[in-house]
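Is glycine placement plausible here? Inputs below.
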Amino acid sequence: MQTLTVGLAERSYHIHIGSGLLAHAELLLPHLPHKRTAVVTNTTVAPLYLEALRTLLQSHGVDVIPIILPDGEEYKNAATLGLIYDALLTHRCERNTPLIALGGGVIGDMTGYAAATFLRGVPFIQIPTTLLSQVDSSVGGKTGINHPLGKNMIGAFYQPQVVLADIATLNTLPDNELRAGIAEVIKYGLIRDLPFLEWLEQNMEKLLARDTEALQYAVTRSCQNKAEVVGVDERESGERALLNLGHTFGHAIENGMGYGVWLHGEGVAAGTIMAADLSQRLGWISTEDVMRIRRLFERAQLPVVAPVLGVEKYLQLMGLDKKVVGGKMRFVLLESIGHAVVTGDVPQGLLHQTLEACCGNA
Ligand code: NAD
Ligand code: GLY
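Reply from A.M.:
I modeled the complex. Tokens:
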């Protein structure tokens, strides 16, 4: 097991990463002093992992309230959030009743937001079970739900007390979900960790084959990157925005296609190619660099061509991005491979060229 720390003064916490951690009650018990917890999960993850977790905690005298939600990005909304509050109130949960998120990023984001808001804040524990949630969404405290007009538009920064990433849970993950997680892994290499990108170029097939050692390394290295960024910029006033490489385009794809049609990581993959294309049009990176990035996503079997939504639709959806300031769009782009920056200085003509070049006709 490897343990990292997200350094946020009195809100600092550990990320434990290893195979079989779900059987280690000692990692959770210090955070459950009142011997009661609500475990929020979904209809897919519950049959796989809920019973084992419940039995383990109950054997240590912890009362477990299971809350099982419907599965899917299309349920990451206010109506489903309401189901969590309903269950918490029905079971008379109190301010000292921690919520455990057992599942992928959808469960983690919704549970975190419920924890941030229920009784004005209750403790929160992340047990991420997808690659994407282990390398990204469970760390850093971004929580929230979608709105029909925009992705992750309602939310709060609310840090967990601990993150338990059990690599063994990735063995039951569908292939396309594993690949979606790899998109966020590649992101760290592109924005700030060139040696990690080179490692990914050498080890992509091992990751796809779910080699435990490779997964452990990729999750740990990704979490190290994320913890460093969050440690210096928790609320995204600067460097943290770089973690959104590919997301301005990707969120537009996810929303434009209808939540759940494209996986988040798939949108990020195609969106990153668009960001790379735009970076190249600005003269920052070369066409060979764009091809190098594209090859890596292709080897990860991720989409590199965005869907045809129409330039106007893309512009409208991208205008809802959280990075928009004073009505002006801002983009995370690559100054070089391994170094991303945020810029608002993108000529409209070049953006149009990228939107036309990267959608459906490559
Ligand atoms: P997800 O939560 O929808 O999980 C993907 C699928 O895998 C679901 O069907 C889920 O039930 C299933 N699943 C989960 N664990 C499993 C397991 N071990 N075995 C078998 N099936 C399993 O998707 P995701 O990719 O984990 O997360 C995507 C979400 O995360 C998006 O909503 C995105 O906006 C959000 N996100 C948040 C942050 C953040 O910082 N908070 C960062 C990145 C992404
Ligand atoms: N996934 C982007 C962030 O956590 O900031």
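Short version: The chain has two domains: 2-172, 175-357.
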